[in-house]
Design a protein that fits this description.
Elements lengths: L1 H16 L1 H31 L3 E6 L7 E6 L5 E12 L2 E6 L15 H4 L3 E3 L4 E6 H9 L19 E10 L6 E9 L5 E3 L5 E3 L2 H15 L2
Antiparallel strand pairs: 1-2, 2-6, 3-4, 3-5, 3-7, 7-8, 8-9, 8-10
Length: 219
């Protein structure tokens, strides 16, 4: 017992001598833990507030299927424009398909809900963007865009469809975008090129989306 007390005495004396430093170190470690958990909470909050628009192919894998636009954000979005970019080995055709086509008699739909895709889309809401074959046909009638490089470089590449949604999110100051690419095999079946929809929300991407939307307004 006396031997143990003899060995512990220097330790106790060192702790007493360094008490101020140890208290500072404890406070610093406590602050680091709080900062760590604060960053976790802030990161989770920012992820929840970040806009997320999902583009899906539903009903069928072929061109008879349809494209679906879903708003998975915490707040509503306002769709400004929907564009179809048709890639082939010949080049890229860009077509805006926000408005529906006239009927067989050449009359436009007089209903806002059925006549346009433009408008507000609430959280967890979705909208039918139309049949794939119809969107591809509309894109085929558009001229080639010489400023865009095609994703299909080989002649055996039939075509690839790139769907781009331009939208405004809540109080965000500029246009944002969501993009997904679909490729078609020899049997005419469409499959997504990427697993997820690409979210175009960075400052550089927002500037690019604004330029694209500006060109759409001048058409």
């Amino acid at each position: 017992m006396k031997f143990s007390r003899f060995r512990m005495a220097p330790v106790i004396e060192w702790i007493s001598a360094q008490s101020s430093f140890l208290q500072f170190l404890t406070s610093l470690l406590t602050l680091a833990v709080w900062v760590f958990y604060a960053q976790l909470l802030l990161g989770g909050y920012l992820r929840q507030r970040r806009p997320k628009v999902v583009l899906n192919q539903v009903m069928e894998l072929s061109t008879k299927g349809r494209f679906l636009i879903s708003n998975m954000s915490a707040e509503g979005i306002h769709i400004e424009s929907l564009q179809v970019w048709l890639h082939s080995y010949e080049g890229v055709r860009r077509c805006t398909v926000t408005e529906t086509e006239p009927d067989s008699e050449g009359q436009l739909c007089d209903s806002i809900q059925r006549g346009t895709l433009q408008g507000p889309l609430p959280p967890d809401g979705y909208i039918d963007a139309g049949e794939i074959s119809t969107l591809v046909r509309r894109a085929r009638s558009s001229p080639f865009d010489d400023n865009v490089a095609s994703l299909c470089a080989a002649e055996n590449c039939d075509y690839t469809v790139e769907l781009l949604v331009l939208y405004v999110y809540s109080s965000a100051p500029s246009i944002m975008g969501a993009k997904r690419t679909f490729t078609f095999d020899d049997d005419g079946n469409a499959r997504p090129y990427h697993v997820e929809t690409e979210q175009l929300t960075s400052r550089r991407e927002r500037k690019k989306m604004a330029d694209i939307y500006r060109k759409y307004l001048t058409i």
